[in-house]
Amino acid sequence: MSEPPVTVMVVDDHPMWRDGVARDLSERGFDVRATASDAASALRIAQAVTPDVVLMDLNLGDTSGVQATLQITQEIPGTRVLVLSASGEHADVLEAVKAGASGYLVKSASAEELVDAVRRTAAGDAVFTAGLAGLVLGEYRRMAITPDSEHQAPQLTERETEVLRLVAKGMTARQIANKLVISHRTVENHVQSTLRKLQLHNRVELARYAIEHGLDQDGEQEEES
């Protein structure tokens, strides 16, 4: 039995671009549930159709796509936001990720890159245009210089910690499953359990947590040994 298609919503204030992306995704097997042209309608429509992935432009006129991203990720937990923007400015990327975006793709990306990014975002991966992932992780490293030590860290199992280290290194769920010789579903269960324990929303935040606690460095040392 084949898996149901990934459901998508496209948010962009340029009708030709918005309709073109929606058409391209539909032709490649995605279920494009809706489109929207501004932040207010994006939240309202997303609440009604609950897509797996919202493709979000940042320039939406009066209200930034960052605000729409924040509202959608806070109010519709099952929906992930992938920013698709003409801007590759560092400030825009970091602002979008801090608002809860699972990834960031520039509009110069090819159709194949977009299709792959949407599929990976739906699967729970953090997806970035080449060069931007390092920027985000670098910012989280800078923020980690003064970690919050007032709160006791939640207790993770040995396997959850192992999966967390590999997530921090940028590995996909399938890559982690292959490395640990466990099923893809088991990896996802560990990731979701860890997200709940740490009260985080997506894998970008999970990677940040791992970096703040030095787990990514531990993972690298283990692989070298």
UniProtKB/TrEMBL annotation:
Domain Response regulatory positions: 7-122
Pfam families: GerE (PF00196), Response_reg (PF00072)
InterPro entries: CheY-like_superfamily (IPR011006), NreC/VraR/RcsB-like_REC (IPR058245), Sig_transdc_resp-reg_receiver (IPR001789), Tscrpt_reg_LuxR_C (IPR000792), WalR-like (IPR039420)
Modified residues (4-aspartylphosphate): 57
Superkingdom to which the source organism belongs: Bacteria
SUPFAM superfamilies per the UniProt record, alphabetical: CheY-like
Keywords, alphabetical: DNA-binding, Phosphoprotein
Endpoints of the signal sequence: none
Protein name: Response regulator transcription factor
Organism: Saccharopolyspora endophytica
